[in-house]
């Protein structure tokens, strides 16, 4: 529970209108699932973030960093504590030469558009990924042969003590859907990308081509969190799920997409419990049939892991 005293303390750090109580997380996640967060704060910058983190830690209040909520399954019970939302209040993009510097809340689509407008190539692959650039570097988001690790020059984070660190690409330890931020309690505040000059017409064409491929292959007409499972070495999760005969399998409102079996979709009023149960059935059946362990790509927020 968030007391009046906590709200007062938060107001010392951020303007009153940036603090919201009892916010349904379904409003903040692409799955459109999740109960209420006790408190959600729109973070306006790195200094606010540092102070908010310090306050929560000193008071022993759990907190969670929320980007664009496109890789999350929020619990039906919501989140007990403070959600720090790094979104549109922290989304400036600056461009100098071939370098783009974006604050963590900028959407990948916005950064990719800025790159196009400045005739910079290398980020086309990310234009259809519905995350923030902060969430994107955490996950080393990628598609169609590209991933953020290929274009990131450096990432500014707050470390566990709230100190600002600038991590080079090598120190980010990018791997398949992972980075140093997943292994350390870092919070991304800014990302610097190094792109190359390119022909705007070709950049636009590539972005349109990839968007068309997404529309054709992915169930974008339903809420989801993208690929539910990571790609297991040597296989495609969607293909294994299809071959296990699970296409269209539905539990409550959660369904294995008929269009792309790698996506669990919210077919209507799905709960987090429905999604978790369906994920478990999928994992068990794929393990039984093919001996392959599917690891979730989707991150659980709140509740038990
Ligand atoms: C339709 C659809 C298609 C998708 N396609 C792709 C795809 O092609 N490729 C791909 O890789 N992903 C894809 N995704 C998944 C998702 O968009 C990416 O993983 C994205 O990078 C997540 O960013 P986000 O801002 O939404 O992060 P969130 O979902 O908000 O958070 C994800 C994790 O990152 C943490 N986090 C977020 N911001 C920060 C920060 N600033 N500092 C520290 N930690 C932070 C959160 O705490 C959480 O642990 C897709 C999702 C959907 C719904």
Tag the structure with descriptive keywords:
305 residues, alpha+beta, Uridine Diphospho-n-acetylenolpyruvylglucosamine Reductase, domain 2, Uridine Diphospho-n-acetylenolpyruvylglucosamine Reductase, domain 3, Uridine Diphospho-n-acetylenolpyruvylglucosamine Reductase, domain 1, 3 domains, five-stranded antiparallel β-sheet, 8 helices, binds flavin-adenine dinucleotide
CATH topology of the largest domain: Uridine Diphospho-n-acetylenolpyruvylglucosamine Reductase, domain 3
State the CATH class of the largest domain: Alpha Beta
What hetero molecules are bound to the protein chains?
flavin-adenine dinucleotide
The whole-number mean of residue pLDDT values reads 97
Helix content: 25-40%
* Stretches with pLDDT under 50, minimum 5 residues: none
Structural class determined from secondary elements: alpha+beta
**Oligomeric assembly:** single chain
Question: Strand arrangement, largest sheet?
Answer: 6-7-13-11-12
* CA distance, first residue to last residue: 21 Å
- Rg calculated over all Cα atoms: 20 Å
How many helical elements? 8
Number of strands: 18
| Major beta-sheet overview | 5 strands, antiparallel
Q: How large is the share of residues in beta strands? A: 15-25%
